[in-house]
């Protein structure tokens, strides 16, 4: 019990001494040991690294999980499984859930209907997109988020702890310097020769005793200063080595950033591929909206023509088809399209072509012309312009 009380009293005294030293430094009444410029640059660089790493980490979390409620729930779930030393189960993505809803709706509406068959196709694509997103999230978390979090929760906490210890030892060192300075001033005053005319012999004895006491105080202060300087130098070297390790942290984070970019590029490439395949599938499915649009164009383009045209659906020859005098329209291509055979016209997104219809032609298709090129084009890949 006595030991604990003494330790507590010693700690309180040390804290008070540091507080006094810190306050006097702020008031400009005490000298402060300055670190060298290289050390200051290392600390500034470390602070900058910590601040920006934290911002990048938080924003990457928002990018991967935009919904803050879901994000908080996911973090709590991950924390609980981590504490239980178990692997967290794979979470279904929003894309997979949307795809599942679409396919369930298709079964209710009837998979044989145009709407139902389209829902089935789109739902399957959304599930593939969701699976690709889940793989991307897992890869990004392992290759990018985890290293950043390990730095913030591991390396940076160690650096901060050693820096706080260094600052405390600096305060102790400056306090020792202040005590030594005061002791030397007092010793010098005590050693001053007294006035022989006004000083009695008894005062000579007192003066000599005081001088001896201050000499002992100076020696004690010098010893404490040497000990404090040694501890400060040792801690400064430890802290310097940790701060210089920030360069290795940058190299590690650079590698992780490259892996994150590769994962992101692969994810968007997969999404682009799935969407292109979906567009091709939709172009081959019956589309009630396209049917209505095609019928309107037939009515507008063939009102003045005889219904019994020699051009039949079964014997449609593109080279023999002629543009009608009226009923042609301009159309903007929405997506790239590769012709399946010589009767079709390949398309490039954003280009403008002339389109029209002919009697007996499938309502999902139009005849498109671009310069001297002519062929069938799917209605779903076009935006008809007025």
Task: Characterise this structure.
By secondary structure, the chain is of the alpha+beta class. Helices cover 67% and strands 6% of the residues. The chain has eight helices and five strands, in the order ααααααααβββββ. It has a five-stranded antiparallel sheet. A hairpin with an 8-residue loop joins strand 2 (352-356) and strand 3 (365-370). Helix 4 packs antiparallel against helix 5 (114-190), helix 5 (114-190) packs antiparallel against helix 6 and helix 5 runs antiparallel to helix 7 (246-284). The longest helix is centred in the middle third of the chain and has 77 residues, at 114-190. The chain is rod-shaped, with a radius of gyration of 41 Å.
Uncertain regions spanning at least 5 consecutive residues: 195-199, 298-314
Distance between the termini: 95 Å
Strand order of the largest sheet: 4-3-2-1-5
Q: Which structural class do the helices and strands define?
A: alpha+beta
In one word, what is the shape? rod-shaped
Strand content: 5-15%
Written as H for each helix and E for each strand, in order along the chain, the element string is HHHHHHHHEEEEE
Mean pLDDT: 79
Helix content percent band: 55-70%
What's the total number of strands?
5
Radius of gyration: 41 Å
Reported for the largest beta sheet, the result is: 5 strands, antiparallel
Total DSSP helices: 8
Question: How would you describe this structure in keywords?
Answer:
386 residues
């Amino acid at each position: 019990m006595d030991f604990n009380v003494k330790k507590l009293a010693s700690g309180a005294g040390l804290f008070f001494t540091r507080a006094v030293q810190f306050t006097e430094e702020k008031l400009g009444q005490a000298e402060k040991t300055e670190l060298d410029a290289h050390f200051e640059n290392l600390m500034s660089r470390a602070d900058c690294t910590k601040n920006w790493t934290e911002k990048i980490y938080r924003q990457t979390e928002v990018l991967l999980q935009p919904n803050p409620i879901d994000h908080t729930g996911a973090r709590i779930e991950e924390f609980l499984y981590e504490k239980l030393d178990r692997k967290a189960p794979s979470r279904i993505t929003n894309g997979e859930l949307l795809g599942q809803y679409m396919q369930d709706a298709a079964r209710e509406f009837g998979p044989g209907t145009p709407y139902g068959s389209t829902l089935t196709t789109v739902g399957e694509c959304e599930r593939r997109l969701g699976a690709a997103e889940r793989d991307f999230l897992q890869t990004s978390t392992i290759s990018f988020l985890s290293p950043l979090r390990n730095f913030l929760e591991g390396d940076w906490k160690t650096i901060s702890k050693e820096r706080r210890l260094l600052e405390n030892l600096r305060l102790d060192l400056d306090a020792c310097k202040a005590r030594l300075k005061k002791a030397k001033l007092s010793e010098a005053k005590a050693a001053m020769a007294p006035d022989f005319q006004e000083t009695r012999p008894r005062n000579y004895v007192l003066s000599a005793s005081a001088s001896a006491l201050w000499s002992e105080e100076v020696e004690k202060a010098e010893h404490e200063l040497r000990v404090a300087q040694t501890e400060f130098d040792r801690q400064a070297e430890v802290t310097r080595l940790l701060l210089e390790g920030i360069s290795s942290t940058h190299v590690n984070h650079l590698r992780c950033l490259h892996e994150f970019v590769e994962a992101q590029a692969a994810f968007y490439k997969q999404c682009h591929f799935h969407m292109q395949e979906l567009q091709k599938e939709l172009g081959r499915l019956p589309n009630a909206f396209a049917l209505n649009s095609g019928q309107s164009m037939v009515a507008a383009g063939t009102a003045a023509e005889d219904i019994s045209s020699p051009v039949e659906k079964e014997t449609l020859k593109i080279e023999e088809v002629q543009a009608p005098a009226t009923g042609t329209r301009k159309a903007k291509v929405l997506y790239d399209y590769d012709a399946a055979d010589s009767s079709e016209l390949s398309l490039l997104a954003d280009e403008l072509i002339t389109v029209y219809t002919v009697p007996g032609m499938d309502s999902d298709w139009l005849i498109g012309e671009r310069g001297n090129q002519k062929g069938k084009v799917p209605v779903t890949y076009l935006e008809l312009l007025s």
